[in-house]
Design a protein that fits this description.
The protein has 610 residues and is α+β, with helices and mostly antiparallel strands. The chain is 33% helix and 21% strand. Strands 5-4-3-6-2-1-7-8 form an eight-stranded mixed β-sheet. Bound molecules: adenosine-5'-diphosphate (ADP) and magnesium ion. Adenosine-5'-diphosphate (ADP) binds next to helix 2 and helix 4.
């Protein structure tokens, strides 16, 4: 009787093992680029066709391989980087398993030219599906060129599993970014389907980031630098105001190797807490230098996840050093609005008295249009309006406040620049957790969410302004140039008429570049990008909801400009906000349909003491 167990033929075993290393063309790109770096290359070219499905080539000027090594390197567990298991823990190079080339050669057609400096001529090796087809001596420059064609040609299931060329291309570009960011000292060229996507000269890190992601990044970056016993931390953060809805540029590197770490990402997010909106992500490029013995890179086959021996300490160090940079470069909001009015407050503040800064603004205020104020529909908030809340609450408990009536076309006066007893009642307020404004009302206690309240106030103000006959535009001295994806540009084009009506002015609208020469007076230059990003996000998710562009814009701007939770407000600001809120048409819900405040009735409080 023959046994059931058979050994798999070598080529099948190789194909199976290859699956672990090579998931998609981008994995090949990563392995080849890392090998080139390990070989000490100073210039690296990456050439791909059809999202890497037909061709991936990496050419380097590193130390190359001898004829023997040229043949050996395709054997499984062939590596020049490791000979004892202990060395694994002290590793400084990128590769160490000696699996990449063997895996790649098992599932594609590979052609390699390589030469070491000591030899006059080099070696050419051709392999297909692990079979060496050809090895010969050739004239070739010092260094190595590896060409990988027809990936997964012999594993149709894997090949069919690949995504479209553009998706695979995007994965390759991501991988390229990671490697290029880890090595600003290396010159990179990247060609796809015959056109040059990137030419990155040797540079410092800041310049490398700018070369990859565009000149607009230069002003966004804040340096990070901290030296501790556990790790050296360096790199850059993007200023909080550039946080985006979509996850974009978030990079961690440990000893110049890109890694993913939800854990450390959390530390970054916590350093940004209160500085950015909860649904946005800050950009970061953070580099750790650590003793290789204090990490374990070997836990993940593609090596993008690693284990830190002392992750709690690292978390704390990272968080505090980021906070330190944010503070040091003065990008953290100052708690007192008066200290830096231009930072987070969207409107002209200067000249207000220190004791009563107020967070309200005269809705008629418009530096470009002196006469608007008189025509404004804004209700003058009087004692009655505020009292209506008391009355309403007394009669109908909680939600009656939203029925505070909106009276139009009353004569416009300055609103709450200096709330005083004659204009509006001085309410006793206090701020809770830098988030809520609490005040006592007849029926009990009113707890207002400061962020939502301010959103509501600004939303109504902007809506009104945007509906005035001709929107007021502020000309920019230097047109802003913003880049968007092609699909986003399509949306922008479709909204163009509305945006013009709202005060935007455009120069060139190119395929992926938008030049903006004028913006609505309600927003500042620095906020344009955020507002447009936000507008796009809402337009995409709200395609079904029928909202006009001006409504979307008003909402978007209100959300972008509203004071965030986590800001402390002085008494004057708290009162002004409360008064402005109850001057709104609809004070109970935010422009995004969330409750602005809750009422805790006296009875509820009494019950707690029973
Ligand atoms: P690893 O990088 O884990 O050692 P690889 O399969 O990626 O395994 O590479 C096997 C060996 O081939 C490397 O250890 C190295 O000696 C050699 N090698 C691969 N690529 C290059 C290159 N571009 N230049 C010089 N040597 C290379
Ligand atoms: Mg390798």
């Amino acid at each position: 009787m023959t046994g059931r167990i058979k050994l798999l033929p070598d080529h099948v075993a190789n194909q199976i093992a290859a699956g672990e290393v090579v998931q998609r063309p981008a994995s090949v790109v990563k392995e080849l680029l890392e090998n080139a770096i390990d070989a000490g290359a100073t210039h690296i070219q990456l050439i791909v066709k059809d999202g890497g499905k037909t061709l991936i080539q990496v050419v380097d000027d590193g130390h190359g391989m001898s004829p023997l090594d040229a043949r050996m390197c395709f054997e499984r567990h062939a590596t020049s980087k490791l000979s004892t298991a202990e060395e694994l823990y002290a590793l400084k190079t990128k590769g160490f398993r000696g699996e990449a080339l063997a895996s790649i050669a098992a599932i594609s057609h590979v052609e390699m030219h390589t030469r070491i400096a000591e030899e006059e001529v080099g070696t050419l090796v051709r392999i297909a599906g692990s079979e060496v087809e050809d090895q010969q001596t050739v004239a070739t420059p010092i260094g190595t060129s590896i060409l990988v064609k027809n990936l997964f040609y012999n594993v149709p299931a894997r090949r069919n599993f690949l995504k479209s060329n553009s998706v695979e291309q995007r994965h390759i570009t991501d991988e390229f970014h990671r490697v290029a960011l880890a090595h600003p000292e290396i010159v990179f060229h990247f060609y796809s389907n015959g056109s040059e996507l990137f030419h990155l000269p040797k540079a410092n890190l800041r310049k490398r980031i700018v070369h990859i992601f565009g000149t607009k990044f230069n002003e966004k970056l804040v340096p990070v630098s901290e030296d501790t016993q556990v790790a050296g931390i360096s790199g850059f953060l993007c200023k909080p105001e550039f946080a985006r809805k979509t996850r974009g540029e978030q990079f961690f590197f440990v000893n110049n190797r890109f890694i993913k770490s939800p854990f450390l990402h959390h530390a970054v997010m916590s350093a940004f807490e209160g500085l950015i909106r909860p649904d946005t992500y800050p950009g970061y490029f953070i580099y750790f230098q650590m003793d290789p013995a204090s990490i374990d890179v070997n836990i993940h086959p593609t090596k993008t996840e690693i284990k830190f021996n002392d992750d709690q300490t690292l978390y704390a160090i990272l968080r505090s050093s980021l906070k330190h940079s944010l503070g040091q470069f003065n990008v953290a909001p100052v708690l007192d609005f008066e200290k830096d009015p231009s930072l987070d407050t969207p409107y002209a503040y200067q000249g207000r008295s220190v004791s009563q800064p107020g967070i309200s603004v005269d809705p008629g205020f418009n530096p470009f249009k002196g006469s608007v104020a008189g025509k404004s529909d804004f209700k003058q908030v009087t004692k009655q309006a505020w009292e209506a809340l008391y009355v309403g609450l007394k009669d109908k408990e909680s939600d009656a406040a939203s029925t505070v009536e909106w009276e139009s076309s009353e004569e416009q006066k300055a609103l709450f620049q200096k709330p005083d007893a004659a204009e509006a009642p001085t309410v006793q307020t206090f701020q809770l957790k830098q988030k809520y404004i609490v005040t006592s009302i007849k029926s009990g206690m009113l707890i207002i969410n400061q962020n939502r309240a301010h959103q509501r106030v600004l939303y109504e103000k902007y809506l009104l302004e945007l509906h005035q006959d001709s929107a007021v535009s502020q000309q920019l001295l230097f047109p802003l140039s913003l880049s968007f994806s092609k699909s986003d540009m399509q949306i922008i084009r479709s909204m163009k008429e509305d945006l013009l009506a709202l005060g935007f002015q455009f120069g060139d609208i190119k395929k992926e570049q938008l030049s903006i020469s004028g913006i609505p007076v309600q927003i500042s230059e620095g906020e344009v990008g955020i507002v447009i990003d936000d507008l796009l996000a809402q337009k995409k998710e709200g395609a079904v909801r029928k909202a006009t562009t001006s409504d979307l814009l008003a909402r978007t701007m209100a959300r972008a400009m509203a004071i965030k939770n986590g800001f402390s407000l002085d008494a004057g600001s708290q009162q002004a906000l409360v008064n402005d809120l109850f001057a709104c048409k609809e004070s109970a819900v935010s422009p995004f349909n969330k409750n602005v405040y809750v009422v805790v009735s006296e009875r509820d409080i009494d019950n707690k003491f029973n």
